[in-house]
Amino acid sequence: MTSKRLRTFRCRVGVAVLSVCAMLMAQPALCAAPGPDGNRGHLNRLLHDQAVIDHLGLSGGQVRAAQAVSDVVVEDHRAAFGKALASQVKAERVPQVARVFVAVNAETFDRLKDVVSAAQHERLKQIEIQTFGVRAFGRPEVIDELGLTVSQQDALRLLGTDTGERLAGIQRSTSLTAAEKSRLAGEIRGSALRDARKHLSAEQWVKWELLTGAAFAR
Questions:
Q1: Single pTM value for the model
Q2: Which of 17-21, 85-89, 126-130, 160-164 has the lowest average pLDDT?
Q3: Which of 116, 148, 164 delimits the end of a domain?
């Protein structure tokens, strides 16, 4: 094969490869996760967190099955995520995405009943709420369980938004080490929870503690 024909052949092969790659990248199953920025959600991250896995005492089979359940549920909601993320207005987009994640959580926990024990299931729910922090006060099931008033919901929503922005600022920082980010994030979450307690009655706080269980330490 002459040099000219060889260059032509390589060029055609290159174009063919690029075409196949473009086709594969367009397939939904191979795209990034459907949540914001490829985010599969807090519960999915916990099911891949070795500290959580060890704490729950999950077997290798349970881990693989639980992660598969979570991944499937997230993918099943791809269309819902797409619709929620379509809005260009953040004030509209954020609550819509939150509602999808609430649905994902509910379905995932329901399916996990066939994968983990009752005790593991209950503890995972506690850890999931506990580590989600003050933002969990905006969830329908938490609002109902605590009996939050409209004014309490408004105050806790503002607190959650402020906390989220502060945490995001830490993660965006390029001057902090991973250890410093972790320490500062922990301090912010702790401070936010103390502030949240000021908006709750003693009875509501007890109910919150029952929802979150014993402190989960990594």
A1: 0.78
A2: 17-21
A3: 116
